[in-house]
Please model this.
Amino acid sequence: MKTIANNKNLNDLGEADIIQFIQEKGPSRLPSHLKKGIGDDCAVLKTDGDRPLLVTTDTLVEGIHFTNQTLSPKALGWKALAVNVSDISAMGGTPHTAFLSLGIKPETNVSFIESFMAGFQAISDKTGIVLAGGDTVESPSFLVITVTLLGDCLPEHVVYRCGAREGDDLWVTGTLGNAAAGLFLLQNKQVAQSSEFKSQIRAHQKPMPPLEVGKALGESGLVHAMIDISDGIAKDLAHICEQSGVGAVLQAAEIPISPRVMKLAAEMGKNPLDWALHGGEDYELLFAASPADRQKIISLTAKVSNIPATRIGKAIRQQGIWLETAKGRDRLGPGGYFHFSRSPAETR
Model:
């Protein structure tokens, strides 16, 4: 167990060490009702029925995860639930019950709550989720939103982060960097807001996780490990590698980036690969599977979503994550946003 001096502050530790510290203070052995605790997209609880319960929770803080310049109240309501739907999707499950807690300033206009709940209800209706409770408290200076989402899945269909094997193919769904490109546009109002890039702004404000794809992949039995892309490939793949005891090589030329993101990056003098690798909030799926099942993966994902998954690299024995380009192979840092960092990235 890591010993941490109690006179240190959270900036001295960083997000990863804080999570590890909390995890080490928990039980040394999981109780009989808990199949998976801290360390995955969801906790997995055994039930009396044949489907274990998937539980996830996320908190969004004004000024860290969103501002009123980048998200309308309605979009915020949608996104607050969407980020939790993504976690259930990454486990191969189906979401069904949500709990919403708000820490809100007393001077907030009632119209804000009306719009927020309209967005929350819109994605609830789309995904079949029922709001079953929560909490509302006064917050003195900024808005805090916490959503807990429950889902379920057959036990043999649950996919964890820890199953990747040396030699596995690494895959992603969809295209990447859209949300980061949309955030760039929203944060740089002086840039002409062309209708050509509406889909990138929508990707940031109203993400729709590939829920049916996650469920189909879980049911297929083809996937060894899976995670949602909330913090960018580099950081999220590191979680799979760490828990699976493998490293990874990514092929830069294979990272799927939409033509619109490529065009915007060229016009703005940005590297689209940085948006794809480190931008985060795409809420697509990153998963590992055997090379023998490549055609099955392509066929399955194309059937469910009309867009086949893209193979972007492989798991290797050597620890670390590497990016291979025409110039060679270089170690890839995690990038993205780190909570409690002394030099945080831009607000997400």
